[in-house]
Every structure is written in structure tokens, then in C-alpha cells.
Amino acid sequence: MKELINELRKQFDPSSSLPIDSDPIVYADQIKDKIKRDGRIREYYKLLERTFQPKASGNHTDFHRALVQLGFSGIVTTNYDIVLEAAISAAFTNGDKHWYCKPIDLCLDDKTYRVSDFLRSLSPNNNHSQVLHLHGCWDNPEKIILTEKIT
Prior knowledge:
mainly alpha
């Protein structure tokens, strides 16, 4: 979080007098308020999307692969990226059988039914096909929950 706050500060509020060690959520709200006042909200959303989008070099590490193989019934995250989905796909792909895991963005207003589908799919068989993102997902930056304020 602190790295992202530092990047937001650098891009949008370099002259801020607020100490970097202050509450990051409060600071994120202040930066976003300034961005809105300055009419730069589209730039803010582009930065969030580019920061959390899948990377060409691969999103996950061996740690992520080991984590998803621990035997959870389902995976819920506050992360915005799809590192866990990439790890699941890599961990459970076997030969010709490719495993696909999709993100479920809790912040998508018109897709709330997918949350109940996810909850109903939970089982001890460790057959992960979805990851629930509580604070939003990279491809919907307008709805990402990064600050305390809703808007």
C-alpha cells in the first residue's frame, strides 16, 4: 500500500506537506480528492489499471503456486491483481488439460449474482475455478476500493 501511495503522491501531489508515514487510507483519500479537484481522475484510474494489470513476464511466483495448493475450499482476496488466478491456472494445468480460473469482482454492481455462485461452489475438493476480489479488480479501476470514501 505504501508503495502505491508514494507513486500516487509522485504523480499527482508531489508538493504535499502530509508526512508519508501518516495513515495511508487517509492520505489516499486526500490525494484522490486533489486529483478530482484538478480534473485528473481519468489519469488516476489509468494508473491503477496499469499498476495491477497482468504482467507479460508472469504474475505469480512459486510461493503463490504453493499457497493455492494448500487445500482451501475457496479463495477470497483484497488484492486487485489476478496473481492468484494465474497461480491456480499454472498449478492445476496438467499436460493437455489447461485449468482456467476467473476473477469475481465484488465491486461490479451488475454482477452480484456471481458472488452467490462463488459461495455455492465452495467445497473441500480444492477445485478452484474462481477467486473473489473483495476490493475490486484491476480491469474495473473506477470501482477499486483504495480509499475510505466510497466515491
